């Protein structure tokens, strides 16, 4: 099953056939929105709005753990996230898609793991995740390939086929927000190797991985990052760009759901093997 996380400007999947809406409760609180079940190419796909209805959750207060837990509970095994980003890499222009392949985390106070040793929240279930949480294990997952290579590959071929302007790799740098960055912060992130900057990519990806789900992000460049643009950044600019790309994002989702092979070849499911202390 595929779960889609819609970011800024994508609060519902317009033009998709809605089957039902689910309210899921989790041991980590309520997810940021109801989960909409939509029918795509004869398959059911789950949609969750990261910022919730009316953009109620700012990036640093999104209930990332509840969101990923809710997905797992309803049977999602692959997560595709949509995220607006600012471009640091000078080759990336507003409107471009970026299939990121690595991460830099600059956030400070986000709950970014389910595995808190003896402080873990024990949960019911038969699988390895439930076992490790219930036993209060300390777990270190591998982060050398955070983004699912199989979904990334499918996305890249699709973007090529659609002839959209895209970049097949990039390092996503996550800042806390909610303010945009200073030019000096962007220069620091650039020196560290960041290509794009956003406020919500972390810890979502890590949490999905901890639950053994595949995860990939379609980043949409909404603006040149601070100091590169040479003008004042506004949320309006970001939302306008996302609106312009909304139809294309819908097309990507539909085709991806259709073309992604059912059988996994990525190994993301085995991430907990050897990870517990
Ligand atoms: N910085 C951080 N997050 C963002 C940006 C940005 O420039 N654009 C869209 N999301």
What ions, cofactors and ligands are bound? hypoxanthine
Distance between the termini: 30 Å
Count of individual beta strands: 11
Strand content: 15-25%
Uncertain runs are: none
Shape: globular
For CATH, the homologous superfamily of the domain at 78-270 is named as Nucleoside phosphorylase domain
Report the biggest beta sheet as strand number plus sense, adding barrel if it closes. 11 strands, mixed
The radius of gyration is: 18 Å
Number of helices, where a helix is a run of at least 4 consecutive DSSP H or I residues: 6
CATH architecture of the domain at 78-270: 3-Layer(aba) Sandwich
Structural class: alpha/beta
CATH class of the domain at 78-270: Alpha Beta
> Please, what is the average pLDDT?
94
User: Can you give the helix content as a percent range?
Assistant: 25-40%
Q: What topology does this entry show?
A:
Blueprint: E1 2-6, E2 17-22, E3 35-40, E4 43-49, H1 64-73, E5 78-87, E6 97-98, E7 102-105, H2 128-134, H3 149-162, E8 166-167, E9 171-174, H4 183-192, E10 196-198, H5 204-210, E11 214-224, H6 235-259
Parallel strand pairs: 1-4, 1-5, 5-11, 6-8, 7-9, 9-10
Antiparallel strand pairs: 2-3, 3-4, 5-10, 6-11
Helix pairs in contact: 3-6
The protein binds hypoxanthine.
């Amino acid at each position: 099953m595929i779960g889609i996380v819609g970011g800024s400007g994508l609060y519902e999947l317009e033009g998709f056939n809605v089957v039902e809406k689910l309210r899921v409760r989790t041991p980590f609180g309520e997810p940021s929105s109801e989960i909409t079940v939509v029918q795509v190419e004869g398959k059911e796909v789950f949609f969750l709005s990261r910022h919730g209805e009316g953009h109620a959750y700012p990036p640093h207060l999104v209930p990332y753990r509840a969101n990923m837990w809710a997905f797992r509970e309803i049977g999602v095994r692959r997560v595709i996230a949509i995220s607006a980003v600012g471009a640091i890499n000078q080759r990336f222009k507003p409107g471009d898609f970026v299939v990121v392949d690595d991460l830099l985390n600059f956030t400070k106070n986000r709950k970014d793991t389910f595995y808190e040793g003896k402080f873990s929240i024990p949960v019911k279930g038969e699988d390895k995740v439930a076992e490790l949480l219930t036993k209060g294990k300390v777990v270190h997952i591998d982060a050398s390939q955070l983004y699912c290579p199989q979904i990334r590959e499918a996305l890249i071929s699709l973007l090529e086929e659609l002839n959209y302007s895209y970049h097949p790799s990039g390092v996503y740098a996550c800042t806390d927000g909610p303010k945009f960055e200073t030019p000096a912060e962007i220069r620091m992130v650039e020196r560290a190797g960041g290509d794009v900057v956003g406020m919500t990519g972390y810890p979502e990806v890590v949490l999905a991985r901890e639950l053994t789900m595949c995860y990939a992000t379609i980043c949409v460049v909404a603006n040149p990052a601070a100091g590169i643009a040479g003008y004042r950044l506004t949320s309006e600019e970001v939302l306008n760009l996302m609106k312009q790309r909304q139809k294309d994002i819908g097309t990507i989702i539909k085709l991806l759901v259709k073309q992604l092979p059912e059988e996994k070849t990525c190994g993301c499911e085995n991430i907990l093997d050897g990870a517990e202390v």
